[in-house]
């Protein structure tokens, strides 16, 4: 099963790799194929200091957890998504959260399931069908 994981899920897994979400990401790759847009990596690094502050991880602990989780995800370069897929996704997330457009576009591109912890996104997309 193909699953596109969004930032919320990966951040939760990094913040607590022993959580249910962390466990699924780390061990679930036997059963699921996880995907995410390449921009997720830079988003995590951008928030690295906050993650270190919240968790108390050392630099090496962060690196180990970061690598352990990211090694289970196939990263797809956004350039592979067509303009049409991006435009459709932007339309779908308009009024909800435009930052999630690339995740929705990738999800549609792969005909996958979107795994997000963003209730607002889930509810907004359900309303739009």
Describe the protein in words:
The protein is α/β, with parallel strands linked by helices and 129 residues long. The protein has one domain: 5'-nuclease (Rossmann fold, 3-Layer(aba) Sandwich). 58% of the residues lie in helices and 12% in strands. A four-stranded parallel β-sheet has the order 3-2-1-4, with helices on both faces. Helix 6 packs across helix 7. The longest helix has 12 residues. It is globular. It starts with a strand and ends with a helix. The model has no long low-confidence stretch (mean pLDDT 93).
CATH superfamily: 5'-nuclease
Tell me which CATH architecture applies here.
3-Layer(aba) Sandwich
Number of strands: 4
Domain unit count: 1
SSE order, as H and E? EHHEHHHEHHEH
Give a short overview.
58% of the residues lie in helices and 12% in strands. The chain has 129 residues and is of the alpha/beta class.
């Amino acid at each position: 099963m193909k699953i596109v994981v969004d930032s919320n899920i990966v951040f939760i897994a990094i913040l607590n790799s022993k959580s249910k979400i962390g466990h699924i990401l780390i061990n679930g790759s036997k059963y699921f194929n996880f995907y995410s847009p390449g921009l997720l990596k830079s988003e995590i690094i951008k928030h690295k200091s906050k993650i270190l502050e919240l968790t108390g991880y050392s630099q090496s602990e962060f690196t180990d957890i970061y690598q352990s989780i990211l090694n289970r995800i196939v990263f797809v370069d956004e350039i592979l998504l067509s303009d049409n897929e991006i435009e459709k996704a932007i339309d779908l997330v308009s009024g909800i959260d435009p930052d999630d457009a690339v995740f929705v576009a990738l999800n549609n591109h792969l005909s996958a399931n979107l795994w997000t912890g963003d209730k607002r996104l889930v509810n907004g997309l359900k309303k739009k069908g």
